[in-house]
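Thread title: Can someone regenerate the structure for this chain?

I was given the following input by a collaborator and told the matching structure tokens would be attached. They weren't. Posting the sequence so someone can regenerate them.
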Amino acid sequence: MARPVSTTESKYIEKKSYLSRYAHERTVAVRESEARLAAEFGNEEKWLRCVKEECIRFVPFLTKKCGLEFRGRVLEIGAGGAWLSAEISRLPRVVEVITTDYSPKLLKVQAPKVFKLLNANTAKITRLPADFHQLDFADNHFDAVVSATVLHHAANIVQVLREAKRVLKPGGKFVAIREPVWPLVKIKSRKKILAKLVATGVDDHFYTLAEYKEFFRQAALPLEVHRVALSSGFRYYVDKMVNGLTHARYAFIGTKRGK
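Best answer:
Regenerated them for you:
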């Protein structure tokens, strides 16, 4: 069945002063550099195909396998191409999606391409630059805060989690997916892998599952960890069994205490 297309463009709000003490103009420059964009998106045609074929499986996984129900106001931090915002905007009980990133360029150029590709309900979406270390939103404002491949970029993950918790309503969910997590089986070539990534402009942090759990504990954000398996049939059970051993794919779901 073809997806309905929204005919209303998503709103973009210009914002000049939004960086916290954890970031600066150089952070934005690196985020928008050709080396970083090439490392993150690579061949754009290939990346968009990955978005359309693989990334769209995550929201059904979160709703069906993890029991999440997205509704009300949703904030995406570190959105980049904003495919997660696009998918969430299509859910009937979601009334507003605020899509944020360090980079005005990605929000202005990359996100609209993805919205069109995924037929997002753009009437619900507002794009604006923001620093996830210091969110310019009121306390208890969002029903959910989401991120995809974001936390490991943070200068201070605990601060990011505390900010997400602050802007969440009591009982609201913070959902982080696609974080690179070192598997339990230690790979001797980890240093070589990191060296190759740094050489291509990717100077990211990589953490173990235990370290992620500790970040959530320090932020006082009770955590559920779900193994991610996006395949179906027999392959689904194989992927679920080896996840965490030879590779690691998890969904981190933190819940703000209260009602």
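Confidence is low (pLDDT under 50) at residues 1-7, 232-247.
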